[in-house]
Amino acid sequence: MILGPVAQIVAFSLCALIAIAGALGMATTMSMFRSGIFLMASFIGVAGLFILLSADLLGLLQVMMYIGGMLVMILFMVLFSHDPGGAMMAGMQLPIIEKFFSLGLLPREQKQEEQSQHAGNGHQPMEQNGQDDHAGHADHGDQDAEQNGHDEHAGQNGHGGHEDHEDHEHHEHMDMSMTTPIKKPAAVLAVLVGVILVGLLLLRPAWPIVAATPNPNSAEMVGHLLMGKYMLAFEGAGLLILIGIFGAVFLARAGHFPDERGREARVAVDAQPTAPEAPALQPVADADPPDAAELVGVTEIQTRRNLEKDGRGEQ
Amino acid sequence: MGVVLQMPVVLAALLGGALLTLLLERTLLQRTQTEPGPAAAVDYRHAVDPPNADRWLYPAGPVLALLGVALATVVIPFGPNLIGEDLGIGVFYFIVVVDFVVLGIALGGWGANTPDAVEACYRIVAQLVAYVIPLGLALVGAIMMAESLSTVAIVEAQTGLWYIVLQPIGFVLYLITGLMQAYRAPFLEPFAASIQQGVLHTSGGWQAMAWRMALSGVLFVVAAMGAVLFLGGWQGPLLPGPVWMLLKTYGLMALMLWLGTRVRLRSTAQMLALSWKVLIPVGLVNVLIVGMLILLGVGTA
C-alpha cells in the first residue's frame, strides 16, 4: 500500500512520537512495569518507521520479538524488583517529566481518607507499610522526619521553594539511589553524545537517492539471504540458542525445586477438587509438622476464596 | 478501496463475527455446563474503579486487545475480493498482531492491581510462551505448500485439495494451539473461575464491552484463520464464497470448542509441558513430512 505524502508525514510523526515519548517514559517513570512497557512502545514506534520504509517483514519481526520478549523480561524483572508498581516512588516529590510519566500510579486511598483496604497490592508488598507509617506519622506529628525530608530535597534538586506539602507522608521512604550525584554529569554527557550524533547526521554532505523501488516480497528476499549468503551466521545463531536451551533445561532439571503446595489451590481446573486437602485427613501424629502448616495455609486460601465469592454473590 | 472505506467494513465484519461467536459459545456452554472462561458474564452497566489501579495501563488493556483483533481481521479473506488488505506477509502479520491481545490482557491485569488480575497477567504471558512456537510450526506447513505468506494465495493454492487432507498433523496442531491462542477450554487458565475470570472481573462498563468484543473476536479470527489455512477458505461448490467461509469458520469453531470441553482443564504449567514435550516435536515432524510431500510433488501446483 503506497501512502500519499501527507499520510506519510502523519504516519512518520506518529511513529517518531511513540518512539521518542516511549524512550523518555522508559527512563523517567517510577514504575518498573511501566518502564518496560514504555520501552516496548518505543521499539514498536521504531517498527512503524521500518514499515514506512517498506521493510514490513523487519518491522513486524521487531514487534513480535519485543511484545513476547519484553513481556517475559518484565515478569522476570518484577520477581527481583522492590517496588515494581512504583506506587511508593510515585509519592515522592519529582521533577516535572518524571511526575508526568508517573501520573496515576498512586493508589486512590492515599489521596482520600484512610479506608480499610482489602485485596489489592498484589505486587506492592511495601504498600501496606507505607499506609501504616503514614497513619502513625499523622498521629504523632513527627517533626524530625518532615525536616529530614525537606533537607534531602533541597540538597538534591536545588530549586528552593518546596512548599508542596501533599506528598510528605512518603519522605521517610525515600530511595536515595534515585538522586545520585553522578546524575547531572551523566545527563550532560548523554545530551552531548546525542547532539553530536544528530549533528553528524545533519552535516553529512550528501544522501544518495536511489530511484529503484524496493521489492514488495521482502519475506522471500530475506529468506534467500538467510539461506544463502548469511547461512553460516544464521545457523550459528541457531546453534547458540540450542545450547542456551540445553543449559536452561540442565539448570532447571526436576528434583531440585519441588513444587510449592500452596499454588495448587489456585490452579484452574479441578476435576478432583479434594486432592490438595486429602492428606489433612490423616491423624496429626503421622503428618510431619511443616507439612501440616503448609496444608493449613492451603485451606485458609480456599476458605478466603469461598468467602470472597460469597461476598461477591451478595453484591 | 481507500483506507477510510476499509476500516468500517473490517470493523463491521469483526463485530458481526464476534457476535455470532458469542452466541455459538453461549449455546455450547449451556449444553455442556463447563467453566465459561473468557465467555463469562460481565457487567456492562457499572464501571469498576479498582482503588490501587495503575490508571494508565488499566484502561489501555482492553483498547490494545481490541486493536490487535481488529488488525488481525484485516487479512482474513471472506471471498476472492472480499478482504481488508491482501498483505504479502499476511499470515506472519496475523500471528504478530494477535500478540497484542496478550499484551492487552497483561496490561489490564497488572493495571487493575488486584491479586486475581495480576495472576491473570502472569498466566497470560506464560501461555503466550507456551503456544507461540507450536502455532508457528503449524502454520509453516501450510505456508510451505502454498509458497506464500499471503492469505489469498494460500486459499487459491488449495483449489484442488484442502490442506487438512495433506497435513492432518498440522491441522490437529492448529486445533490445540488455536484453543491456547483463544484462551478457551481446556486452556482458559488466565480466565479461570478460581481467579474470578481474571481481567473480566475487574472490568465494567466500556471496558467490559471492549473485553467481550476482543475475546470473542480472537476466537473468531483464530477459527477463520484455521478455515483459511486448512479448509480451503471461501472455496466450495454451489454456495457463494462468503457463505462457505462463514460455514467453515463456525464449523471449525464449534469443533474446537466441543473438543475443548471433552478434556480436563490444563494449568499453565501443564500447557508449557505439553507445548515443549509434545507439540513442538510433533510440529517439527509435521514440517519434515510436509517438506517430503513437497519434494514428491504432492499438493504443489
Structural account:
The complex is a heterodimer of chains A (315) and B (301). Chain A starts with a helix and ends with a helix. Chain A is built from eleven helices and no strands. By secondary structure, chain A is an all-alpha fold. With 301 residues, chain B is mostly helical. Chain B has one domain. Chain B is globular and about 60 Å long. Chain B starts with a helix and ends in a 6-residue tail after the last helix. The interface between A and B is large, with 47 and 49 residues.
A few lines on this structure:
The complex is a heterodimer of chains A (315) and B (301). Chain A is mainly alpha-helical.
Cα shape of chain A: globular
Helix content of chain B: 55-70%
Q: Write the element-wise H/E pattern of chain B from the N-terminal end onward.
A: HHHHHHHHHH
The overall number of domains of chain B is 1
**Amount of helix of chain A:** 55-70%
Tell me the quaternary state: heterodimer
Number of helices of chain B: 10
Characterize the main sheet of chain A. none
- Which two chains have the most extensive interface, and how many residues on each? A-B, 47 and 49 residues
Distance between the termini of chain A: 52 Å
Count of separate DSSP helical elements of chain A: 11
Structural class, from secondary structure content of chain B?
mainly alpha
